[in-house]
UniProtKB/TrEMBL annotation:
Keywords: Hydrolase, Protease, Signal
SUPFAM superfamilies: Trypsin-like serine proteases
Protein name per Swiss-Prot or TrEMBL: Serine protease
Record field: transmembrane: none
Amino acid sequence: MFRPLPFALFLCFLLAAPLRAGAEARPSRADLQRVLELHARSSVRVRGPQHAGPGIIVGADGQVLTAVAHVGPQSAQVEHAGNALTARVVLSSTVLQVAVVAGPQGAWPAAPVRLVPEGLAGRWVVGVLPGRKGQRDRPRATVAKSGPAPFFDVDLTLAPGSPLYDGDGRLVAVVVEKRGRGARALPLSAVKAELASADSP
């Protein structure tokens, strides 16, 4: 049985300095390599009663961000470093299509996080495309496109629950839906707002 973690504890992992406004350079090869290394360290697989898919560790105490389809009503399995651990659902939003689960407390390799309050449309983001038939995973940069608020769209074929990063390797969003050859994603600022409202009396 897990001791409930206050939302404030998770929110502290989302309190990072906002990105500077203005034009940003396309991520370099070195930037993409850094994203790939951080992704390999902090990505997990989340398995619910009906579906499974990717997730990303966002809190050093075991908080994992994923798509809502990958969790059950109260729990999910988090597969990381060869272990399958039971995690408690902290947030499950069908409106935003995201979930946060809390694994057993311990030392988890959380991804660095960056909030972008003004939105991500028009900014470079990086996703990691899974390798096929024994090939390695590939990081790819694309410019985020406007979508229905608070979502945005990317020309990357990624599964729901997949993380998106900025050029510095900081987590900025999570994919919530496949859309043809692209995907729809939710910025972390929207996740933070949802957690804050859920924690309000």
